[in-house]
Structures are given as C-alpha cells and as structure tokens.
Amino acid sequence: MPSDELPLPLVLDRVHQGDCLELFSHVPSGTVHLAFADPPFNIGYAYDAYEDRRPADDYLAWSGRWMAEVVRVLRDDGTFWLAIGDEYAAELKVLATRELGLTCRSWVVWYYTFGVNCRQKFSRSHAHLFHFVKDPEAFTFNVDAIRVPSARELVYGDKRANPTGRLPDDTWILRPQDLPEGFSAEEDTWYFPRVCGTFKERSGWHGCQMPEQLLGRIIRACSQPGDLVLDPFGGSGTTLAVAKKLGRSFLGLELSEQYATRIKERLASIRTGDTLDGAPEPLKSVPATKDGRRLARSSRKR
Ligand SMILES: C[S@@+](CC[C@H](N)C(=O)[O-])C[C@H]1O[C@@H](n2cnc3c(N)ncnc32)[C@H](O)[C@@H]1O
C-alpha cells in the first residue's frame, strides 16, 4: 500500500476477526465515542487462540500499544472503560493516566459471586472497572439513564425518597440474594453476578462472558443512541450485543476465529430495541435460569 493511502476503514456494526493491533490501523482517528475493553488479564486463563501467561514486561508493553490505539481512535470527548484484574490494575491505571493522558473519573469495583474458588487465598470476587475520559471538561455522562432505587425508597419506604432514584455508587452488585449486609445502592461497590452456568443469559462457549446489565449501565451512561462503541477484545460479544440492543453503532475486534463466528451468530439473533438479558433491577429481582425456575434450597449444591 502506498504510504499516502489510508487503510480502508472497518465496516461498522459487526465483529472483525484478527489481532486488534493490526485491525486498529483500519479505525480512523477520533471517531469512537465509547471504547470498552476487557483484555486478557495475564493470569493463565485458557483462551482458544491467545496465550494468557506472558512475561509481565511483555504484557505491559503490549497493553501500552493497544491502549495508545484506543486513545488515538477516541473522539476528543470520548470515553474509555477498562476492565482489569488485581494483578495489573495499578500499572494499567498509571499507564492510562500518566503516559496516555487520560483522566480517571471513577475506579469502580464490580463485586460478583460465583467467582473462582481459591484454596490457598481469598476467592476472587471482584474486578476493576476504570472509567477514563480524554477531556475532563467534555464527555458524555447520562445520569438519568442509569438511576437505581435508593435505600431510602427500597429499604425504609421513606416518602422523601426521590422517585426517580439515584446514581449508582462505584461498587457494583448484581445479585440481591447474595448481597452482604451493609451493601446498599449508595455505596461504592458495584455488584453484578458473573454470568453463571445456570443463567439463561449464559452463552456457554466463552468463560469470560460479562453480564449484559453491566455493559448496559456503561453504554447508557457514556454514549447516546447512534454513537460508535468499540470493543477491541470481543470475547463472547456482550459489548456489541448490548450496543446493538441499545441502538448504538458498534465495532468489535476478536482474535479467535471461533469466538468471532459465535459473536456473529449472537448479533444475528438480536434486534435493536430488544431487552437486555439479566435482572433489570438487581436489587429487586433475580436472574432467569435456563430451565426457567430457581432450584429448591434443598437441591442446591454446597
Ligand atoms: C476477557 S475476554 C473478553 C470477554 C468479553 N468482555 C465478554 O463479555 O465476552 C478477552 C478476549 O480477547 C481476545 N483477544 C486476546 N488477544 C487479542 C488480540 N490481540 N486482539 C483481539 N482479541 C484478542 C481473546 O480471544 C478473548 O476472547
């Protein structure tokens, strides 16, 4: 390709299979309203086409390269959400803010149950969600789109409660039946369950599938209908599926041929305007299970 010729832009509203670093060169600068990335955490997770245990320096150098591409393709008023585990959360936050010039608006903790059961240490039950913006003075944040009921309304039945609810705290929780005492909608821990094996929502072919309701909150808050949402690590396609349901334009990148094929099937099976999977109001409902019922307490495994 002659050097003065720009690579053809990727076709919108689909997933593209390949290495995101190569595919990024087909995304024009300053075009993306919202990027959401849930990269491999470098913890040895078994993906079909990616080796998730690399020397730390390699992983960090690679993270710097793809995050620089995210910053390049973001609009000046764009937003970047990064999901990451404990191992690299601190280093990637420094990279994003000190080296790439982003501003961190929130460091959200997503608290979930049914995480990995560890034998020699505390079991993993949270991930970090960083909310970065390019320009701290100009970004999208739709407060009214993501309100939750307040404890004042939900727990105390207080007539003074704002009937439109309140903004969620920065700790997110999705399964009310597992709510530890003391967590309320006002607090800074977010709780959404992982998409468990029994949930109707579970696709079953990707172990890192994120809940639609979690992406729903992020996409509703940080983009408008018609905006372009990018996910460089498509996985099971949750970001793209939610963007489509919520009437956003989207671009997905995914290394694995198998996952990319499944994402295409998932996207083909949904329409704009479809409701998001999972409990719409986690503090008031439970997720639907595949067989449409909850197991009796006595038949649950311990
Ligand atoms: C943690 S998963 C994403 C899960 C996703 N958030 C979901 O809800 O299903 C990370 C994904 O990144 C993909 N991946 C790894 N390296 C990649 C690369 N260089 N380019 C594009 N995708 C990559 C893996 O195949 C894996 O599916």
Can you tell me about this structure?
There is one protein chain. By secondary structure, the protein is of the alpha/beta class. The protein has one domain: 3-Layer(aba) Sandwich (Rossmann fold). 24% of the residues lie in helices and 18% in strands. It is built from 7 helices and 9 strands. A 9-stranded mixed sheet has the order 1-9-8-2-3-5-4-7-6. Helix 2 crosses helix 3 and helix 5 crosses helix 6. The C terminus is likely disordered. S-adenosylmethionine binds next to strand 9.
CATH homologous superfamily (4th level) name: Vaccinia Virus protein VP39
Q: Tell me the CATH topology.
A: Rossmann fold
Uncertain parts: 182-188, 292-302
Distinct small-molecule ligands in the complex: S-adenosylmethionine
What is the CA–CA distance across the termini? 60 Å
Q: What is the CATH architecture term?
A: 3-Layer(aba) Sandwich
Main sheet summary: 9 strands, mixed
How many whole angstroms does the radius of gyration measure? Answer: 19 Å
Question: What is the helix fraction of residues, given as a range?
Answer: 10-25%
The helix-and-strand class reads: alpha/beta
Bulk shape = globular
Instruction: Give the helices and strands as they follow along the chain.
Output: EHEHEHEEHEEHEHEH
Task: Going across the biggest sheet, name each strand in turn.
Answer: 1-9-8-2-3-5-4-7-6
Mean residue pLDDT: 84
Estimated share of beta-strand residues: 15-25%
Tally of helical runs: 7
Total domains, how many? 1
Please identify the top-level CATH class.
Alpha Beta
Number of strand elements? 9
